[in-house]
C-alpha cells in the first residue's frame, strides 16, 4: 500500500490535531473565558451572571459523563461538532440582557451552552489525553491551552479597544459581544477537520485504535463504573472539583471593584499570562532530564506552593476591601490599583499551572482508548460540579469573603488525596502493546489491525 502524501501526513499529524483542537477551544471556551474575564460576563450585575453560570455548570455536570459514553458509540468528531453549537447562545443571552435587561435568553442560552459545553469539554479532553505521544504530552496540552488563551488574547484586545475610554464601573460595550459572537461562529465548520484517532499519524510510528465500540449502554455503564473506581480517579477527584472553584470569586472581585476598561485589561492579561504559563509548563513536564517520579512530585510541590501564595494574598486583598470598600478602581488616578490589580494577575500563574498539571498527570496513567472518554467525562463533570457549587454559593451568599474561604478550604482538602496519588508514582515505563507502522506500507493499514492498548496496572 502506498505511503500517504505529505499533505496527508501534515493533516493527520498529532501536532495538527493539537493546533486544531486549540483553535476550536479558542473559538468556544476561549471566547467564553474572555467574556467571563470581563467580570460577570461583561454585565453590571454579578447576580444575573452567576445565576446563569450555575445553571450552565449544573447541566455540564450531568451531561459530561453522558457524552463520555456517546464518544464511544458515535466517535469523537460528532461530539466535538455538537460542542461547537451552543456557546454562541450563551453570548447572545448576555448581549440581549446588556442591551435591554431581558432574562429569557440568558436562561435559554445557559441551558444550550451547558449541553454543548459538556460535549466539547469531554471531546477536547479525550483528544488531549488520547492523541499525543507519551514524550510529547506536555507539548500537546500546552499547545491546546495556548491557543485557547490566544482566543482570550484576541477577545481581550478587542474588548479593551472597544472599552478603552470607559473608566467607570458598569457593563461593557454592546459591540464587544457582536465581535466575540462572530468569532464563536467559526468553530462549527472548523470542527469537521478533526481526525478520528485511528487516522492520526503519530511521530513515533505507533497507531491508535478507534475508541468507537458497539456496546450496549449497560456495557458502557459498566466501563464507566470501572473507571470511576480507579484509585487515580478517586484520588484526584477532589482536585478536579477544586481546581476551578475559585473562578467565581475572581469574577466577582474584578466586577465589584474595577472599572470597565480595567476589567477588559484583566481579560487580555488572563490570556497573556495563561498562555506563557502553558508554554513553560509544557516544556517542563516533557523534559527528559528529570526522572518521571521526581518530576511529578516536584511539580506537585510547586503547584501547591503557588496556590498557597495565591490564596494568602487573595484573602488579604478581600479583607482590605471588606474593611474599606471601593468600586470602579481604574489604572488612572487611583493609587490602590497597583496593589489590588497587579499581584492578582501574577497569581494567575498558579491556577493555570495546576490545571495543566492535572491533565498531564492523568494522561500519564494507564487507560485504554475505550476508557479515556469516560475519564474525560468524569474530569469535566467534576470540574463543572465545582464551578456550579461555587456560583451557587455566590448567588445564595453575596459576601465575596465567604466565596473565597470556601475555595480555599476545598482546595486544601483536595491536596491530601492528591498527594497520596502523587506519592505512588514510579519510574516504570508505561506498559502496553504498541505496533509500529512500516514506513512504506503500514501507515494506511486498517485500523482494526493496529492498536495501542494501555492496561490498568496496580502500583
TrEMBL record:
InterPro entries on file: MFS, MFS_trans_sf, UNC-93-like_regulator
Subcellular location: Membrane
TM stretches of this protein: 12-32, 52-71, 78-95, 107-131, 138-162, 174-194, 298-316, 404-423
Main location: membrane
Pfam families (UniProt xref): MFS_1
The organism of origin for this protein: [Candida] railenensis
Protein name per Swiss-Prot or TrEMBL: Notoamide biosynthesis cluster protein O
Keywords, comma-separated and alphabetical: Membrane, Transmembrane, Transmembrane helix
UniProt xrefs under Gene3D superfamilies: MFS general substrate transporter like domains
Database matches in PANTHER family: CINA C-TERMINAL DOMAIN-CONTAINING PROTEIN (PTHR23294:SF57), ET TRANSLATION PRODUCT-RELATED (PTHR23294)
One GO CC term, this protein: membrane
Topological type in the membrane: Multi-pass membrane protein
Domain of life per record: Eukaryota
A GO MF term: transmembrane transporter activity
Amino acid at each position: 500500500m502506498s505511503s500517504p502524501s505529505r499533505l496527508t501526513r501534515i493533516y493527520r499529524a498529532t501536532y495538527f490535531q493539537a493546533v486544531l483542537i486549540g483553535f476550536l477551544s479558542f473559538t468556544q471556551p476561549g471566547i467564553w473565558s474572555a467574556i467571563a474575564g470581563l467580570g460577570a460576563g461583561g454585565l453590571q450585575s454579578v447576580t444575573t451572571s452567576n445565576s446563569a453560570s450555575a445553571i450552565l455548570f449544573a447541566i455540564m455536570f450531568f451531561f459530561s459523563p453522558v457524552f463520555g459514553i456517546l464518544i464511544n458509540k458515535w466517535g469523537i468528531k460528532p461530539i466535538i461538532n455538537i460542542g461547537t453549537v451552543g456557546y454562541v447562545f450563551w453570548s447572545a443571552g448576555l448581549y440581549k440582557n446588556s442591551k435591554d435587561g431581558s432574562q429569557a435568553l440568558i436562561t435559554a442560552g445557559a441551558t444550550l451552552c451547558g449541553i454543548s459545553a459538556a460535549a466539547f469539554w469531554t471531546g477536547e479532553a479525550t483528544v488531549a489525553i488520547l492523541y499525543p505521544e507519551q514524550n510529547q504530552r506536555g507539548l500537546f496540552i500546552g499547545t491546546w491551552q495556548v491557543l485557547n488563551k490566544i482566543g482570550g488574547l484576541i477577545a481581550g484586545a478587542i474588548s479593551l479597544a472597544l472599552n478603552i475610554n470607559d473608566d467607570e464601573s458598569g457593563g461593557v460595550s454592546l459591540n464587544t459581544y457582536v465581535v466575540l459572537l462572530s468569532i464563536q461562529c467559526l468553530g462549527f465548520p472548523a470542527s469537521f477537520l478533526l481526525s478520528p484517532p485511528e487516522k492520526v499519524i503519530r511521530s513515533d510510528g505507533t497507531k491508535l485504535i478507534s475508541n468507537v465500540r458497539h456496546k450496549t449502554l449497560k456495557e458502557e455503564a459498566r466501563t464507566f463504573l470501572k473507571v470511576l473506581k480507579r484509585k487515580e480517579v478517586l484520588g484526584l477527584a477532589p482536585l478536579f472539583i477544586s481546581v476551578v472553584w475559585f473562578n467565581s470569586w475572581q469574577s466577582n472581585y474584578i466586577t465589584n471593584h474595577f472599572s470597565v476598561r480595567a476589567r477588559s485589561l484583566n481579560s487580555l492579561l488572563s490570556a497573556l499570562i495563561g498562555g506563557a504559563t502553558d508554554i513553560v509548563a509544557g516544556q517542563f513536564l516533557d523534559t527528559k532530564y528529570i526522572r518521571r517520579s521526581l518530576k511529578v512530585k516536584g511539580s506537585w510541590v510547586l503547584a501547591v506552593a503557588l496556590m498557597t501564595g495565591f490564596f494568602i494574598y487573595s484573602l488579604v486583598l478581600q479583607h482590605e476591601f471588606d474593611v474599606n470598600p471601593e468600586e470602579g478602581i481604574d489604572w488612572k488616578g487611583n493609587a490602590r490599583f497597583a496593589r489590588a490589580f497587579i499581584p492578582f494577575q501574577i497569581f494567575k500563574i498558579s491556577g493555570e499551572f495546576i490545571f495543566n498539571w492535572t491533565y498531564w498527570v492523568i494522561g500519564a496513567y494507564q487507560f485504554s482508548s475505550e476508557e479515556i472518554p469516560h475519564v474525560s467525562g468524569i474530569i469535566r463533570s467534576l470540574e463543572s460540579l465545582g464551578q456550579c457549587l461555587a456560583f451557587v454559593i455566590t448567588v445564595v451568599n453575596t459576601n465575596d469573603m465567604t466565596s473565597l474561604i470556601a475555595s480555599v478550604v476545598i482546595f486544601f482538602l483536595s491536596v491530601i488525596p492528591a498527594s497520596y496519588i502523587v506519592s505512588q508514582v514510579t519510574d516504570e515505563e508505561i506498559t502496553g502493546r504498541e505496533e509500529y507502522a512500516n514506513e512504506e506500507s503500514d501507515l494506511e493499514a486498517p485500523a482494526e489491525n493496529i492498536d495501542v492498548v494501555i492496561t490498568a496496572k496496580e502500583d
